[in-house]
Amino acid sequence: MLTILLNVILGVLCGAGLGASGMAAPGWAIFWGVLIAVAGQIGAGLLLRKKMQGVMDDVQIILKNGQTRMQQKINRWQQKPVSSMKQAQDELLKDQRAMTAEALACVEQLTPYYKWIPMLHRQVETMRLQFAWQLKDLKLVDRLMPRAVMMDPMLMCIRLARMYQLDQPAAEMEKVFRKNKKRLRYNQSALLYATWAWILLQRKDVDGAFKVLNEANDKNENETLKRNREAIANNKPAHFNNAGFGDAWYALFLEEPKVRQQRAQANGRFF
Question: What is the pLDDT of residues 205-231, one digit of tens each?
């Protein structure tokens, strides 16, 4: 916002100076003042966006390099099985947290530009929220949540998951769910519906979960949603399982990937 204010002031001063000096008629003085303000705003915007893009590129490099190193470890463990699966999983978790912490520190470089770029503050806070959630820094998550921009399905699910962890009233959670699902297009809301249905089942609201899954299948083409709906329709809510969403589901920290761990232990390999 500060760039807009400064460029408006610059335009006014230049226009007034041209008019007062007689270098331009009043109409042309206004024209040149507006033009200077617009040109200044465009130039400042390009410079600031370049700086912001540079930081975001650095974040992507950090994440890419971290994921590459983790994949290399997994490949080595597949060729030469580790003696302790627990130790291997702990090592990967440590690597992931280190990668996330480094990316979070990189994002902090954008803090001085909040006053210069409209909406940058909320964009950065949204990124910080995602990294804080991965690090399980729940105090930071709770502080950032009200300022985050909830446009991404995963962020919407994180908000529901955190509300569930805090044992907030079902009515408030449903209000958040209903509000967020309206922002998503066809086939974008599968995980959001699945998360809300899971929460309802945890609170023993089987009928509510069934209604949600009925609605979910009208708005998404997803096999996991279909299987879960059939499980409840056949009076087998215990067979409800969101494992089909893979890492996206387990990244909400509502369940542990037990099946994956059992397979890894049984085969002596890490997947």
Answer: 999 999 999 999 999 999 999 999 999
Q: Report d(CA 212, CA 226) in Å as an integer.
A: 12
Q: Is the dihedral of CA 189, 190, 193, 195 positive or negative?
A: negative
Class of residue 270 by CB neighbours under 10 A (exposed 0-12, middle 13-18, buried 19+): buried
Q: Quick check: 104 and 132 in contact, CB under 8 A?
A: yes
- The confidence score (pLDDT) of residue 28 equals 55
Lookup: tokens for 139? 């105090």
Backbone phi and psi for residue 258, each to the nearest 5 degrees, phi listed first = -60, -40
Low-confidence ranges of the chain (pLDDT < 50): 6-7, 10-11, 15, 18, 259-271
Q: Which residue has the tokens 């230049």?
A: 14
DSSP 3-state helix, strand, coil percentages of the chain (rounded to 5)? 80, 0, 20
Dist CA 144 CA 158 (whole Å): 12
Show the tokens assigned to 43.
Answer: 């130039």
* Collapsed DSSP state (helix, strand, coil) of residue 221: coil
DSSP-assigned letters across all residues of 128-153: HHHHHHHTT-HHHHHHHGGGS---SH
Q: How far apart are CA 270 and CA 88, in angstroms?
A: 8
Q: Which ranges constitute the DSSP H helices of 189-222? A: 190-202, 206-219
